[in-house]
Amino acid sequence: MVASIQFLGTMAQTRHVVGDALGWIIPTGGAAAYTTWASQQTFTVGDTLVFNFTNGEHDVAEVSAEAYGPCTSTNPISLTTTGPATLALNTAGPHYYICTFTSHCQIGQKLTINVSASATSPPSTTPTTPASPPTTSPPSTTGTPPSTTPTMPTEPCPPTSSPTSSPLSPPTFTTDNTIPTPNSGASSLTIVMPAVLFAFVLAFVNY
Fold first, then answer.
1. Is 63 within 8 Å of 98 (Cβ atoms)?
2. In terms of CATH, what superfamily is 15-116?
């Protein structure tokens, strides 16, 4: 949480004495005297102008730009007849002042100044909101989980050995009374007995 700090205080104001020691009179050098004085000042909203003059001999009127040039005193913005007169500078921009006594303005008792806005603004009292921490998204669970089934190693099949020799085949009998002998290796010996000899032997045994 960020706490806000509020600074309290008043803005400094400057009191400008018009013409300084010369005061508000008919200047010897004409209007240039007040023009030179104004060029050496910095006027800011909130400042004040002080016109020092003798009552009954001078006055001070704030007029518009249109009335300032021809020194027209009718319908002034303000008119102060008692000195010293203190006038507040409440708005920025040009301000115009003259003396309404006969011919005083034409001789040079006139002043124009330019007022600037406030040079220093009070600090902001709006609390600062800390930035939100970045949002971290959880890892996605929609993917296919890895397989946990163990893979059995494949054992190579033992080589098949071919016998170099054929196994013995059982004896078989044929219709021509041939008695085969067991197969021995690469060759077999067949004994053929005639039917007559076989019958003779059989008769002898029976006798």
1. yes
2. Cupredoxins -  blue copper proteins (2.60.40.420)
